[in-house]
Amino acid sequence: MKRLLVATIAAACSAAAMSAASAQVKVGVTVSSTGPAASLGIPEKNAVLLMPAKIGKYDVEYIVLDDASDTSVARRNMGRFITENKVDIVIGSSTTPPSLAMVELAGQSGTPLLSLGAGITIIEPMDEQRKWVFKTPYNDVTTARATVKDMQAKGIKTIGFIGFNDGYGESWWNGLQAAAQGSGIEIVAQERYTRTDTSVAAQVLKVLSKRPDAVVVAASGTPAVLPQSTLRERGYKGVIYQTTGVANEDFLRVGGKNVEGTLIAGAPITVVKDLPDAHPAKAVATEFNDLWEAKYGTGTMSAFAGYAWDAFLLMQAGILKAGDAAEPGTAEFRKALRDAIEQTRDIATTNGLVNMSPTDHNGYSADAPAMITAKEGRWRLAQ
């Protein structure tokens, strides 16, 4: 009897040990650390290296893959995370097109996806697939409205548009049209180009022929430099607006004097040291910036590192809540994690306060973006 009792206790202890050993959250991360979007994906990957290996009672494993800025690779990475790695949640990808390629698999498998892409089409229209998807950059509709508001303040009446010929460019085009409606601002030209183009002279000449007061470039990474440089080289003196897709040091380095004065309705963390103390992103953004600079150097922060860190903050809050409902590695845990992220209220991120809902999987208010500008080779808060 004594031997049986000892054996029973031993078995129970062994089961408990196995349970503790299996209490690990697996996080799949796919970012564009090579290819045209590398200037976005590299800081995102570097941000992942700063994420803690433990959240609450759980150990966390980060499985990081490069999708090379390719939609098919991003989808393949997503499939690998689901079928081979059995992850509980996925972060990525860096831009809109590869993120869109991942949405279907997220919904089919019931795996929460935290996208780092800006296009609103990643999360809207809400359906059975997109209910599993969230994203950390502002919706392009939000930043388009902030951009138009700044144009109105400057008395701009006509604008031209040059954007990527893909999901990001299309989403921004739609957002800009909606924002401009009823604003007194007329869009007089629309041109497109691909991320790998080496010349946009023809597109720029068509825009210049309309003599717009301002031009909006809807692109991301260093390929966004091309239209702006061409505009300046062709003598354009008007205001040039870019999007959140260029808020890093690489854009400034590659663009040089041609991107001086660029305006963006973008991420507050890009200008964290200029933010007033009362700004809702100030404390969190400062804490992350200090952590980042200690490892990567002063003045190296980018919005894209912030987007990845915001994904971590949302995931962390979700894990702490979902752990009360189920154990990692189960469909129940993934569902509880999805639900917890959707119920996020007043969580401070590097870009402001997030309030998710069943119909809003971005969660930022209309006044969250900061108006920033390129000045003397640095991003500064626009005055």
Give structural notes.
By secondary structure, this protein is α/β, with parallel strands linked by helices. It folds into 2 domains: 182 residues, 3-Layer(aba) Sandwich (Rossmann fold), CATH 3.40.50.2300; 127 residues, Response regulator (Rossmann fold, 3-Layer(aba) Sandwich). The chain is 42% helix and 19% strand. Strands 2-3-1-4-5-6 form a 6-stranded mixed beta sheet, sandwiched between helices. Strands 8-7-9-10 form a 4-stranded parallel beta sheet. It has a 3-stranded antiparallel beta sheet with strand order 11-14-15. Strand 4, helix 4 and strand 5 form a beta-alpha-beta unit. Helix 3 packs parallel to helix 4 and helix 11 crosses helix 12. The protein is globular, with a radius of gyration of 22 Å. The N terminus is likely disordered.
